[in-house]
Amino acid sequence: MHCQLGQYLHPRKTHCCMRCHAGTYKAKDCDGPDQATVCLPCASGTFTAVDNTMSKCFQCKRCRTALQQIVETPCTPKQDTVCGCQKNQYQIDSESEYFQCRNCSSCADGIIASCSKNKDAICRCKPQFFLSRSNICKPCNSCTGEDCLLCPSPVATSPTTSGLNGNLVLGTLVAIFGVIFVLCIARKVGKLVQKHKKVSFSSCVSSTKEPVSEVGEERNEIPTLRPESQKETELPINAKLGSQEFPDCVRPARTTQLPDTPAILYTVVDHVPPSRWKEFVRRLGLSDCDLERIELEHRRLRDAQYEMLRLWKLHMGRAATVEHISCVLNQMELSGCSDAVQEALLNQNSPQPCSLHNHL
C-alpha cells in the first residue's frame, strides 16, 4: 500500500494518515482514512523543522560559550537554535557543532582579503616583509625555509653587489637542475606504473586478510581481484554498485567483512575526522537524503555517525568490509586514518577466541 506525499502508512498498514506539520509532533495515529492524526505543538525548548511522524520533538541546541559561540537565532517550535560568533570573529571547523570562534587578525599594514564568517583576514605586508603562518608580518631577513619564497628577492648576506649577483645565479641554476631532475624521475615512475599496472595491487589492500568464503550475494557485491597463482573464479560484479566503483583502489585478493558489533562501528567513527565525516559516508554510498534524515533523528553527532555507518553496512551486506573503508580513506588522502582503523580493529579483536576474520 502506497501513501501520497505528506502522508504515512498506519502501523497496522490498513490506511494512510497525514503527517504532522513542522512545530508539532504525533501524539496519536489517525483511526481511519477520513480522520485526522492527533498532532500537538512542541513545548518550549523543543522543535520539529519539517513535516514528521515523530512521537516527540527534538531538544533545541545550546550554543557553547566555552568555544565563544553566541546565539544568532533563538530556537522556535519550527527551527533549531542557530549559533555563531561575535563581530570581528570567524569560525574554525564551521561544519561541526563544536566549531570555535577566534578573533580576526588586525592587519596594521593593510588587508588583502577581509575577515569572513569562516576565514581569517589575509594581511598585506610592507616591502621586505613576509606573511608568516600565524598571519603576522615578519622581516625577510628572519625567514627560514619555504617562508623565504614569500619575499620579493633573496635576503642579502653580503654588502657587496657581486655577492648578491652570485647568489642569484647560483639559486637560478639550482632551481633549473632541480626541475629537470624532478621531471626525469616523474617520467621514469610513470613508465614503471604503466608497465606494471595490470599486476600491481593498490596500497590500500592488506595482504594478511582472509579470503571471502561465499560468492554471489544478492545485494551490493564487491568484485575481488585474484592473483594468477590462485586460479580462482572472480566474483561477479553487481550492476547496482557499478556507479560506486573506486578507480584508485584495485579490489583486494582477500577481504575482511566488518563485524556487526557496535564497538567495531564506533572504532571506525573514532578514527575519521569529524570535519571529513560527511565526505567519508558520501563516498561510501549514502545519499544526502539519508544523511539529513539520520541527522534529524539523532541530534548527537556521535549517535548520527554511528547510525550512518550502520545503515551503510545494512545496505552493503557482506560487501561491507574493512578494505572497502580503507579504500575510501586512502582516496580521501587519509591513509593514516586507514592504517589506524585497521590496527585498532585488529587490536580490539586480538584477545577474543575468534578473530575479526572468523566473522566472514
From TrEMBL:
One of its GO terms (cellular component) is receptor complex. It comes from Serinus canaria. Residues 41-83, 84-123 form the TNFR-Cys domain. The gene is TNFRSF1A. Keywords: Apoptosis, Disulfide bond, Glycoprotein, Membrane, Repeat, Signal, Transmembrane, Transmembrane helix. CDD domains: Death_TNFR1 (cd08313), TNFRSF1A (cd10576). GO terms for molecular function: tumor necrosis factor binding; tumor necrosis factor receptor activity. Disulfide bonds join C42-C57. This is TNF receptor superfamily member 1A. Residues 262-345 form the Death domain. GO terms for biological process: apoptotic process; inflammatory response. It comes from the Eukaryota. The chain crosses the membrane at residues 168-186. TNFR-Cys repeats lie at residues 41-83, 84-123. SMART domains: DEATH (SM00005), TNFR (SM00208).
